[in-house]
Amino acid sequence: MASTGNISFFRRLLNPLTKTCIMQIFNCLPNHNKNRKETSTDKSEVIVQVCSKEEEINKDSTTCIKEEERHEPSVTDSICTKDEQIATPDSTIPKKKKKRGKKKNNRNNDWIPEINLKQQHKKKLQGTELLDDEIIDAAQNLLKKQFNCEGLQSSLFSQMQFYPVYGPSVQIHHDRKNWLTSCLKSHNVEIADSSGKRYITDTLKKQIRECYGGAVTCDPVKMTEILDVDRQPNRYDCGVYAIANAYEFLANGNPTCKYDNKEMRKHLSDFFERREITAFPKIDSLPWNTVYHKRRGTIRNVR
After folding, report:
1. Is residue 230 exposed (0-12), middle (13-18) or buried (19+ Cβ within 10 Å)?
2. Residue 246's closest CA among 113, 160, 150?
3. Among 94, 173, 205, 266, which has the minimal tally of Cβ within 10 Å of its Cβ?
4. Are strands 110-112 and 290-293 parallel, antiparallel or unpaired?
């Protein structure tokens, strides 16, 4: 049996433990949760504060989401608005406007559509520009219909390859920014070059062989003769002279004449509008190899 002294000693030890246990149990009761902040330790206060911040964050996020849902348009709404715009008769498509404008511009840009001439070609004839391949081809097409002859192939073949001809024919060539005319006769090839060159370049030799190699047994270059024709007074009228010489080859067989240079471009523009080529204006009172000086009032030979 334990002594009374020992029992009193154990009671002293157990009294503070029982108090602490009772206090802990009392704190855990629900009636005392409201006063938890006042009686809790620092750690519990920190936990409660963190939880309150998270709750505030969650509240803010939910309000933001609700506001975004209010302001964001739905997919169906956007599709409906697009369909309504397409369905409305007043809505116009800009691409169609551009296409209509281009068609109108193309119509207004035409000068002589039958021979593929535009307003820009008319301006070239009125100015001092070199003639391009489209103007040369338009003149050759009219000559071919008018005289029903061989040759007069597109000038673009100067850069590619001509088809061979097998009879008398005429051809306008392009050689180093210069237009000139050749004519195949029975036994030789004649060249009319208003620039005054007295030699044949390699590119021109190639073109002559391509055009006339089938009609001549030997090399056509060896049978080529350069004629003394009227010379152009400038650097930009070679195409006009080439067309005039082509007409003279076909109409008279000889292009050795003196042209009225001031009237040649206007004449070329006029016969394009008439769709018929006629003889270019000439200076008949003077020999083909003379030039008249207005200031001096004298005549001298070109040779």
Report:
1. buried
2. 150
3. 94
4. unpaired
pLDDT at 232: 97
Residue of 192, 202, 194 lying closest to 171 (CA atoms): 192
Which pLDDT score is estimated for 81? 47
**Across all residues in the chain, what is the average pLDDT?**
75
From the list 185, 180, 156, the residue with the least C-alpha distance to 244 is 180
| Contact predicate 154/137, CB 8 Å | yes
Pairing of strands 150-151, 290-293: unpaired
Mean pLDDT (whole number) for 10-39: 54
More confident residue, 74 or 23: 23
Q: At what angle do helices 238-251 and 261-274 cross, to 10 degrees?
A: 70
CA distance 151 to 159: 16
Instruction: Report how far residue 271's alpha carbon sits from residue 172's, in angstroms, rounded to the nearest whole number.
Output: 18
pLDDT, mean of residues 230-237: 96
Cα(204)–Cα(220) distance, integer angstroms: 11
Residues 14 and 193: their CA atoms lie apart, in Å, by: 137
The residue-averaged pLDDT of 69-88 equals 47
Q: How large is the greatest C-alpha to C-alpha distance in the chain, in angstroms?
A: 170
- Say how far residue 160 (Cα) sits from the centre of its chain: 24
DSSP alpha helix (H) spans, the chain: 4-28, 36-39, 42-71, 75-87, 94-109, 119-126, 133-147, 202-212, 238-251, 261-274
80's tokens: 């409906």
